[in-house]
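Comment thread on ticket #2218

A.B. wrote:
> Attaching the input chain for the structure job we discussed in standup.
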Amino acid sequence: MSESSADGRPVEKVDVVLTKAGRTKIRYPAEVLADDGTVVTVRAPWAAAGVRDFGFVRFEPGDVFTEHYWRDRWYAVKEVRTSTGVLKGWYCDVTRPAVREGSTLTVEDLDLDLWCSADGATVLRLDEDEFAESGLADRDPDAATQALAALSELEHLAHTKTLPPHPATHVNAP
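C.D. wrote:
> Ran it. Output below, let me know if you need it in another format.
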């Protein structure tokens, strides 16, 4: 039996697979909201077990993530809302460009992240220490350069309150 959306259309599903250092970090099902060939937008509930408290935000059962993955950009932007629809903010992962093969959407985590609160007052660059320790700069200097540029671009988007960026909008990092 296939699922249908509220307007009767069939619901397209994918498995989102986040890899890190060649291993699967997490895999979860998501509903495809749109795929224009460049950006894949999916919606999924909080996929981890229990609550994850970062200090600046809590992800918990019931939270809903609307996730935007680009095939031509080195990041993903995830809008996070409570179960009642209240916007918590945006969690952004620096990744290699997304690859969709059939019902699998794969992204490689490059350790750098950015958080932007719903009101835009808190913008935090995260995991720069993990990125430095990953050795990516030595193994793949071009990828490391792309990753750092992506983090700068995300920070700019957060400060200019343009998260998530429209697929046709691309801001060049300084």
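A.B. wrote:
> Thanks. Noting for the ticket: Residues 141-159 form the longest helix (19 residues).
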